[in-house]
Amino acid sequence: MARPESRPSSYQEGNESLLMSNLSRPAGPADNGFMLPTHNEEKGRDPHRRFFRVHTAGQSGRNGIHPLLFLQVCFRSTCTLSMIVNILWPFVPAAVAIHFARPDLHVWVFALNYIAMVPSANLLGFAGGELAKKLPKVFGVLLETTLSSVVEIVLFMVLIHNDQNGSLIPVIQAAILGSILANLLLCLGLCFFFGGLGREDQVFHEAVSEVGSGLLLVAGFGLLIPSAFYAALNSSSSNTTATLEEITRSALKISRATAIILLAAFLMYLFYNLHSHHTIFDEILEIDENRDEDREKEKKRAKLTLTECLIAIAISLTFVCMSAVFLVHEIEHIVHEQGVSDNFMGLILVPVVEKAAEHLTAIDEAWDNQINFALFHCLAPSIQTALLNAPLAVIVGWCLSKDVSLNFEIFMIVVVVLSILVVGNFLRDGRSNYLEGGLCVLIYIIIAVTTWYYPQVGGHGAETGAEAEVAAAHRL
């Protein structure tokens, strides 16, 4: 693909002028696609048009379902990388079969289901993206992100259900933070890197970056408090008379209260995006659609109908949830027998594969110069994990009498907070380039290497004596 020439310094100002002029005019019949109405326009407008966009690139021109064309469209997906991933679909039935036929082959069951999650998640991302193009822009992106979060929520719920005496809680905690890290450093870094190739820089709107980075900083602060409370009172320099058990119980209560507060923050986030400020974000994303370098090709590409979107989402959710459940059943065996730590399993291995669909979608959008869309697909999942999925895991654990808390390993939570600060600094100037993207990916690799050598601290994976030496030998 031919890359565009470097953008002039006035490019951002031009976009902002266009944005303000679009905001100042009402949506008319000549608009290409449906724009969400302002508060004064909602009365008297066809109610169906508030929920579906018409005359857009997301329309298929068909109704119902056409099996052969449905399979063809799903296989071709939206980009070459996504189509290559679909070659892995034979691993899906193989992973299901080996789980039932040879449950004793723990490594093979884990490996096959790990691979099988990639094409299943890819189809979920593609079908969610097709559905999002038929809906109002911001609502579509948030719905697409929520569909991917379903996989993460299912994973957390199965881990909580299978937990015995707190054995899987370290994996849940690491997976929460690992999901945030994967989106902030790996996914956003790859977006900046590939989007910056052949360009001097990419310009994104401050409304997306500032709201996203601000919410992440607040979420990071909320996640840090229980860990800081526990670490401060449990340190050797603390003069407290409270016992370790009392400190742990207090940290658990703080975690549950914090979870409820973070859920309230998530509701405010939804109201802000979908109601009070939706027109601003819709206009920003419309500008991104107009500067899509593959726009003409995208218009000509065969699309899924609404019915086909729902069928593809149902199929992909079924397979990806099955793989997630089978994967969880093997975690204890992999951790115990192969010397893989809880932290590495939850912080690196699980989030990378569970977020594969979002990563592919965001990278393709950045490559096509739709950097605001890419930012939405990187920041929104991190916000949902911090403000929705993590609190939900704590509350469900509370209801099941499982001590799931936000009292993370201090190493991991500090890494996440520092990553939020690094990404926020890169977003501050409203521009990105391949250098910033490459640095984010390198930071993620450093964290992965460090986590691989991070020792077990408790639970079923605790190592002592000879077991620690065996695990160290495995890692080397």
From TrEMBL:
<keyword id="KW-0106">Calcium</keyword>
<dbReference type="GO" id="GO:0015369">
    <property type="term" value="F:calcium:proton antiporter activity"/>
</dbReference>
<feature type="transmembrane region" description="Helical">
    <location>
        <begin position="304"/>
        <end position="328"/>
    </location>
</feature>
<keyword id="KW-1133">Transmembrane helix</keyword>
<feature type="domain" description="Sodium/calcium exchanger membrane region">
    <location>
        <begin position="311"/>
        <end position="452"/>
    </location>
</feature>
<dbReference type="InterPro" id="IPR004837">
    <property type="entry name" value="NaCa_Exmemb"/>
</dbReference>
<feature type="domain" description="Sodium/calcium exchanger membrane region">
    <location>
        <begin position="106"/>
        <end position="273"/>
    </location>
</feature>
<keyword id="KW-0109">Calcium transport</keyword>
<dbReference type="InterPro" id="IPR004798">
    <property type="entry name" value="CAX-like"/>
</dbReference>
<feature type="transmembrane region" description="Helical">
    <location>
        <begin position="434"/>
        <end position="454"/>
    </location>
</feature>
<feature type="transmembrane region" description="Helical">
    <location>
        <begin position="253"/>
        <end position="272"/>
    </location>
</feature>
<feature type="transmembrane region" description="Helical">
    <location>
        <begin position="138"/>
        <end position="160"/>
    </location>
</feature>
<feature type="transmembrane region" description="Helical">
    <location>
        <begin position="172"/>
        <end position="194"/>
    </location>
</feature>
<keyword id="KW-0926">Vacuole</keyword>
<keyword id="KW-0050">Antiport</keyword>
<comment type="function">
    <text>Has a role in promoting intracellular calcium ion sequestration via the exchange of calcium ions for hydrogen ions across the vacuolar membrane. Involved also in manganese ion homeostasis via its uptake into the vacuole.</text>
</comment>
<keyword id="KW-0812">Transmembrane</keyword>
<feature type="transmembrane region" description="Helical">
    <location>
        <begin position="215"/>
        <end position="233"/>
    </location>
</feature>
<feature type="transmembrane region" description="Helical">
    <location>
        <begin position="107"/>
        <end position="126"/>
    </location>
</feature>
<keyword id="KW-0813">Transport</keyword>
<dbReference type="GO" id="GO:0012505">
    <property type="term" value="C:endomembrane system"/>
</dbReference>
<dbReference type="InterPro" id="IPR044880">
    <property type="entry name" value="NCX_ion-bd_dom_sf"/>
</dbReference>
<dbReference type="Pfam" id="PF01699">
    <property type="entry name" value="Na_Ca_ex"/>
</dbReference>
<feature type="transmembrane region" description="Helical">
    <location>
        <begin position="410"/>
        <end position="427"/>
    </location>
</feature>
<comment type="similarity">
    <text>Belongs to the Ca(2+):cation antiporter (CaCA) (TC 2.A.19) family.</text>
</comment>
<keyword id="KW-0406">Ion transport</keyword>
<feature type="transmembrane region" description="Helical">
    <location>
        <begin position="81"/>
        <end position="101"/>
    </location>
</feature>
<dbReference type="InterPro" id="IPR004713">
    <property type="entry name" value="CaH_exchang"/>
</dbReference>
<dbReference type="GO" id="GO:0000329">
    <property type="term" value="C:fungal-type vacuole membrane"/>
</dbReference>
<protein>
    <recommendedName>
        <fullName>Vacuolar calcium ion transporter</fullName>
    </recommendedName>
</protein>
<dbReference type="GO" id="GO:0006874">
    <property type="term" value="P:intracellular calcium ion homeostasis"/>
</dbReference>
<keyword id="KW-0472">Membrane</keyword>
